[in-house]
Amino acid sequence: MKELDKDRAYWFVVGSMSVNREIQICDDLRLKDIECFVPLRYEVKVVRRRKQETLVPAIRGLLFIHDREEAVEQYIASSKHRLFFRKFSYADHKEKMTVDDQQMARFMAFVTENQERDLSYYSPEEVTWQEGETVRVTIGTKKYEGQIVRIKGKRRKQFVVSIPDLAYAAIELTPDLLEEVSGNQQQSHAANRQASKQAEDDRDDHRSKNLELDKRILFEKAFKLLFVLTGQQTAQIREYQVTKKELVRVMKRVAPYKGYTNTLEAELALPLFMGAWALGDNTEGATERLKTSLEKLPDTSMLKFRMRFYLAKVTHDEQELARIMEIVKGWNHRKLQRKQQAFMDEAGGLFKI
To answer: Which tens digits make up the pLDDT trace of 220-244?
Structure first.
């Protein structure tokens, strides 16, 4: 049985029995400064009778977590999600499955840089492989090393980059993928795609038909851009771009509304403040609106406490953050009130108690 170095970080393969929670789990890990990767693919959903692209986990129940073994064990033990270490199929299932750093980097680069293409994902039991020659090909302006193979049920050969015995990402091999594409051609293709998407956005209804839902979506997307997809995590660049696009769309739907009561106005001001700062647009106006609505709430309001926290966090007001920290430390964490627990579930990853 292979012994792991306790002081070294490895890419551990982790399974999840919490259905469709892979992205949420990965975001939670990122907030704890633990590197995580989830292969993503596009899925077209119909929202308000319009087709909309969104990123979803490509392989259900699969995450890659990069940290020391002890840190990953502690996270799995404390997580509210049902997680477990994937094990190798030999050694009596005692050895945790890990992936070599270089192999993982190659796989991550391939799937994140080609998300706009028709990537297919396979697990070992889903396909019968006919091994092919390892080659280096040019896709666009990027060079990749992988295998050209035939997959049962596919007419054309596939170019595959894989984590052996675990996950395979494949692109159908067509002549255009092997040609060098000039910068002008790439720009033209990108411009046409952007124009098509922009036309679809312009047709979108700019006034919310479900304000409660849109407020929640706006807050979640802004939270992700502000606190999760930062630093090295922007390597998953398409995830960032898609999240930003969705944020812009929902901001347009929520922005026209005003609250008729102090509470309703505050419930609008907070997500709009977060969205403005996530996009870097009209931050002064959004901040002033938040401060104005905050002052009109009673000091006992948990909504006011949330607003104080996010205002201080986003604007880097360390003194206010320290005061909020002292309040949170004074709570009975063994028996939190319902609203306190909701706040900790939402923002607890942003500070340590």
So the answer is: 999 999 998 876 545 456 778 888 8
